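User: quick one, sequence for these tokens?
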């Protein structure tokens, strides 16, 4: 590693927020309790029924901004425009930072060759001794940033750190018309920047509270994917993938059985049950999109539930 001398380094944390004041309070508390405190925290509200002014005031000097245009990418852009740090760190309002989160980030960024890092997103359990079905499922299948980086050239913005100079060159996050974290990451890697996976850079994300919230997440993802898949060949591939999803849970049995992220037969059975349900739902929704459903209809529902 090419380590820089211990010169001052400013880290700005940018947090988009939408109707999650209690979760935001928990997130800000985790940052304040961290081993390496942030130099600047910027919360950007993205259209909440009520601005989280009271919550932010509890953690002064948190900066609260308002981005009325819908989309977490646009909210992050506004926060970045106000940020003064050499390093930008992104976390979602419903996440909890590990106590060492920014300490690890700073150690990584002392290496001048490090440009962008993605971290380890783990599920925050309500009761570690008795997982819900969604907690078991998302422990195995959600937020696999190591795979996203290795296979698709991007990482999630819920645990993302970069040099501000890199952002200036790559450009802004896009709006709801795309999956903004994937599009930005792939744009960065296409320009030659390297995203490094750092397993010790940890944040905790709660599992979705309901199956409806999980459906909403996939509605957005499928709407984005459908927008990039057209023409005769694209439609054929789309239809074949939809059909394959129906039987695909059987191929995931070894992965569920061997996962180190959950323990016990009960939790593995719960994970498989949710997997079967959500893949059947995805197949149905893909068939609807293939038959002519407007993807924009699904994107317009972005701020109705599970906004993060």
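Assistant:
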């Amino acid at each position: 590693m090419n380590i820089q001398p211990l010169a001052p380094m400013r880290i700005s944390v940018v947090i988009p927020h939408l109707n999650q004041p209690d979760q935001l309070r928990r997130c800000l508390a985790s940052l304040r309790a961290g081993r390496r405190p942030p130099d600047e925290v910027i919360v950007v509200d993205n259209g909440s029924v009520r601005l989280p002014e009271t919550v932010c005031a509890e953690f002064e000097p948190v900066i609260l901004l308002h981005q009325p245009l819908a989309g977490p990418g646009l909210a992050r852009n506004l926060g970045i425009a106000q940020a003064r740090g050499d390093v930008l760190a992104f976390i979602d309002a419903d996440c909890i930072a590990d106590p060492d989160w920014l300490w690890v980030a700073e150690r990584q960024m002392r290496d001048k060759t490090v440009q962008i890092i993605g971290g380890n997103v783990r599920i925050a359990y309500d009761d570690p001794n008795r997982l819900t079905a969604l907690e078991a499922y998302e422990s195995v299948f959600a937020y696999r940033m190591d795979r996203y980086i290795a296979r698709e050239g991007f990482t999630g913005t819920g645990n993302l750190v970069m040099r501000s100079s890199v952002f200036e060159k790559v450009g802004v996050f896009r709006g709801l018309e795309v999956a903004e974290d994937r599009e930005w990451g792939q744009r960065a890697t296409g320009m030659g920047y390297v995203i490094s996976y750092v397993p010790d850079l940890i944040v905790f994300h709660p599992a979705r509270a309901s199956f409806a919230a999980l459906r909403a997440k996939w509605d957005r993802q499928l709407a984005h994917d459908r927008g990039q898949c057209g023409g005769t060949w694209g439609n054929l591939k789309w239809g074949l993938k939809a059909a394959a999803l129906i039987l695909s849970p059987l191929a995931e049995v070894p992965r569920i059985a061997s996962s180190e992220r959950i323990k016990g037969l009960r939790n593995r059975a719960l994970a498989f049950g949710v997997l079967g349900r959500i893949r059947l739902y995805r197949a149905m929704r893909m068939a609807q999109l293939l038959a002519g459903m407007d993807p924009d209809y699904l994107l317009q529902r972005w701020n109705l539930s599970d906004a993060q």
